[in-house]
Design goal:
Blueprint (H helix, E strand, L loop, with lengths): L12 H30 L10 H15 L3 E6 L4 H8 L1 H19 L4 E4 L6 E6 H4 L6
Antiparallel strand pairs: 1-3, 2-3
Helix pairs in contact: 3-4
Amino acid sequence: MSSHLRVQGRFGQPTLLLTTAAVPLTGWAVHAVALHKQLAATRRDPLTGLLRRDSYTARARRLLARHGDDTAVVIVDQDHFKAVNDDFGHPAGDAVLTATAARLTAWAGPRAAIGRLGGDEPLTELARLFSQVRGPFC
C-alpha cells in the first residue's frame, strides 16, 4: 500500500497543495482580525467611546511632542455629576457622560485626543489651539 494520496479527476496535486496551505492561512488571518478588534476595543471606553487612560496618555504625549506650545489641555469637570447619578440613577448618569463625550468630540475635531480617565473622573482632551478649538462648547 502506498502512502501517497491519489486524486483522480480534474483536481491534481497542485490544487491539493494550494488548498492545504490556504485553509490554515485563512484561519490565521481571521484570528488576527479578531485580535485586532479586541485590542482596539480595550483602548476605548465602552460607554463613551473615548480613549482610556493609557491610550489617551500615549496620544497626548505624541501631540505634545509634535506641537509643543501650540497645544492646550482642557479638563472638563461635570458639576454635580454625583447628584445626577444619586437622584436619577445610573442610566441618567451614563446618558450625561455619553452626551458630554459626543459634544467634546464634535467640538475638538478628529485630530484631538479625548479621553475618559476613570469612573466619574473628568473627561479630558488635548487640542491644537490654532486649528482645533472651534468656539464655545455649550
